[in-house]
Automatic annotation (TrEMBL), chain A:
TM stretches of this protein: 12-34, 118-139, 151-171, 183-205, 226-251, 283-304
Span of domain ABC transmembrane type-1: 114-304
Keyword 4Fe-4S attributed: no
Gene3D superfamilies the UniProt entry points to: MetI-like (1.10.3720.10)
Membrane topology field: Multi-pass membrane protein
PANTHER family per record: ABC TRANSPORTER PERMEASE PROTEIN, MALTOSE TRANSPORT SYSTEM PERMEASE-RELATED
Protein name, per record: Carbohydrate ABC transporter permease
CDD domains membership: TM_PBP2
Keywords: Cell membrane, Membrane, Transmembrane, Transmembrane helix, Transport
TrEMBL record, chain B:
Subcellular location: Cell membrane
UniProt xrefs under Gene3D superfamilies: MetI-like
Keyword Membrane on entry: yes
Transmembrane segments: 28-47, 91-111, 118-139, 167-192, 213-232, 275-292
Cross-referenced PROSITE patterns: ABC_TM1 (PS50928)
Protein name per its UniProtKB record: Sugar ABC transporter permease
């Protein structure tokens, strides 16, 4: 391509580069804006013209983690900010009092919701990827009657609008007391991610040559040993990629969390918007909560960039 | 039965006899997942099918009365429900076509010798990895009529995006386009990079114009993958709940998922909402069928 190139073509290419850069900037602008708002002093968050240059502050984060209506005798957010970091890192079940060297600090609901998000997303990811890997291996290596139908059934469980499934799930959960529990959400998200995990893992396992295990079987391994010692290590990158996808889905889920939880097991996605309320919200605090919440996903996206395409298209496209 | 069904290799059958038989392992690996999905996906749907024929309200202790097809009849005759479907359809069309234009356009631009292509592609993927609820929330800040950055950047003064009933649906669609164009871009890029280079060289030798090249070579070859992206996004847009629910509460943005949520968890018309869920379910199955057909077609290539 690069060999024969006229001047006009080169100009065209430069134009394309400029256009791509502009598009990328436009796409990143909202994320930049929420990030910068998270570090602004409150009075600069809603100024017009917008404040571009400012001295970054961590006060929005302090306000995010502590309750704004302070208990008597408790340290102010400023005092809290001055405390050493390890004291500030102690999360104790949210909305509870944490002992710091300088007295009691009342935590806001956020650390608790963030922990709930972590607990639910990690547990459901482990379950979904674990079960998914076994099932994918089963489908990949053994003859299964009606394999295509079963695989389609597995995929179809993911196609319904969440709200449709949420109504009967809510009734079921209420009947068995799983409402507003971590387990309730973990089970839901596992069911939700399982189909995805099976399909993705099947793609990865299909690509591992059968001969590897057959050689192991000849060497006297049992099928189980061959699976754990040969297949699992070979599929490690696939497992990691699938796990991050499942984590992101569970981490970001909103509708079920909104319906199935209200306090004890509530995750961050329904919690953060509920803090806007009426009147004048403190956007710096909301931005801080949003930023904290987006950070893990942003990091994973970067680490996982090479696997994204296959994951997003259910393996329809191989690259 | 007991004779383990094994092929020629003697060592293999010896190995199998020491451990579990392959059949057992297969069942152990597959059956729990199938059962899990049946219990948590199929069973609830059957459960709610029962409720859809009753006047059950989950907010009261009054036991449910069987009302036959009344819920379905009322829903199908309710013009408000149809307007919810119409809003959903409008939303799907606006947001999916926006995503195709922006996503495919960006892919066309990226499909050149562009420095830092990998980095730019990765950065563009970020929006779609975020939580729709949280995205909805911070776009509320961006859209704010008095201090939102969007009005400032575009010089729109104090334009009302979300509280204007005519604009709100488009505002939601714009956010969705921002979030999901990268997905269309990603798939288009894969399709574009698969177009054989020699076709373009041949076209250049024939002195074919850029339009001819685009419509006769590029588009037909990318179409199947683009179709997957479109169907995928259509299904997702049909399910929309989070973004629209959080961004605005205009009646003009009440897509079917929001209607369903309100009916079930705010008005507590449980039986009726189960019936509506079934109507939606049938529609989704119809879309899904088209989706799977296309997916298989493309896979066969």
């Amino acid at each position: 391509m690069a060999a024969v190139r006229t001047r006009s073509e080169r100009a065209l290419n430069r134009l394309a580069i400029a256009a791509v850069l502009v598009i990328t900037l436009i796409f990143l602008a909202p994320i930049y804006w929420i990030t910068s708002t998270a570090f602004k002093p409150r009075n600069l968050a809603t100024t017009i013209p917008p404040t571009i240059v400012f001295e970054p502050e961590i006060s929005p984060f302090v306000k995010l983690f502590t309750k704004r209506s302070q208990m008597r005798g408790a340290p102010t957010p400023e005092e809290y900010a001055a405390a050493p970091w390890w004291e500030r890192l102690v999360f104790d079940g949210g909305e509870k009092v944490v002992r710091s060297g300088r007295g009691d600090i009342q935590l806001s609901g956020y650390p608790n919701r963030f922990m709930n998000s972590l607990i639910v997303a990690i547990s459901s990811t482990v379950l979904a990827v674990g079960m998914g890997t076994f099932t994918a291996y089963g489908f990949s290596r053994f003859k299964v009657k009606g394999e295509a139908d079963l695989l389609f059934f597995i995929l179809s469980t993911r196609m319904l609008p969440p709200v449709v499934v949420a109504i009967p799930m809510f009734l079921m959960y209420r009947a068995v007391g799983l409402n507003d529990t971590h387990w309730g959400l973990i089970i839901l998200y596992t069911a939700f991610n399982l189909s995805f995990s099976v399909w993705l893992m099947k793609g990865f396992i299909d690509e591992i040559p059968k001969e590897y295990e057959e050689a192991a079987l000849v060497d006297g391994y049992t099928r189980m040993e061959a699976f754990f010692k040969i297949v699992i290590p070979e599929a490690a990158t696939g497992i990691a990629a699938t796990a991050v996808f499942c984590f992101i889905t569970a981490w970001n889920e909103y509708a079920f969390a909104l319906i199935m939880t209200n306090r004890r097991a509530q995750t961050a996605p329904p919690f953060i918007p509920s803090q806007v309320g009426s009147g004048l919200p403190d956007w710096t605090v909301i931005a801080a909560g949003t930023f904290m919440f987006l950070l893990p996903v942003a990091i994973f996206t970067f680490l996982l960039r090479n696997h994204l395409l296959r994951g997003m298209s259910f393996g329809a496209i191989r690259k | 039965m007991a004779t383990v069904v094994m092929t020629s290799l003697d060592a293999k059958s010896r190995a199998a006899s020491r451990g579990m038989s392959d059949m057992k392992i297969r069942n152990l690996f597959i059956i729990p997942t199938i059962l899990f999905l049946i219990v948590f996906n199929i069973f609830p749907l059957i459960y709610s099918l029962g409720y859809s024929f009753t006047d059950f309200r989950a907010s009261t202790n009054v036991s449910a009365n069987f009302v036959g097809l009344q819920n379905y009849r009322e829903l199908l005759n309710d013009p408000f429900i149809w307007s919810n479907f119409a809003i959903t359809a409008k939303y799907v069309i606006v947001s999916v076509s926006g995503q195709v234009v922006v996503g495919f356009g960006t892919a066309m631009l990226l499909n050149r010798d562009i420095p830092l292509k990998g980095l730019l592609t990765t950065l563009l993927l970020l929006p779609m990895m975020l939580s729709m609820a949280v995205v909805g929330l911070f776009w509320k800040l961006l859209y704010d009529p008095s201090f939102g950055i969007i009005n400032y950047a575009l010089g729109f003064g104090s334009f009302e995006w979300l509280s204007n009933p005519d604009m709100a649906l488009y505002a939601v669609a714009i956010t969705d386009i921002w979030m999901w164009s990268p997905f269309v871009m990603l798939l288009s890029l894969a399709g574009l990079s698969a177009v054989p280079k020699h076709l373009y060289e041949a076209a250049a030798i024939d002195r074919a114009g850029p339009f001819y090249t685009f419509f006769r070579i590029t588009l037909p070859l990318v179409a199947p993958i683009l179709m997957i992206a479109i169907i995928f996004r259509t299904m997702e847009a049909f399910k929309t709940f989070d973004i629209a629910y959080i961004l605005t509460s205009q009646p003009t943005t009440e897509v079917i998922s929001i209607r369903l949520y309100k009916m079930a968890f705010q008005e507590w018309q449980t039986g009726r909402s189960c019936a509506l869920a079934y109507i939606v379910l049938i529609m989704v199955l119809a879309i899904t069928n088209i989706y799977v057909k296309y997916l298989n077609k493309v896979k066969e290539r």
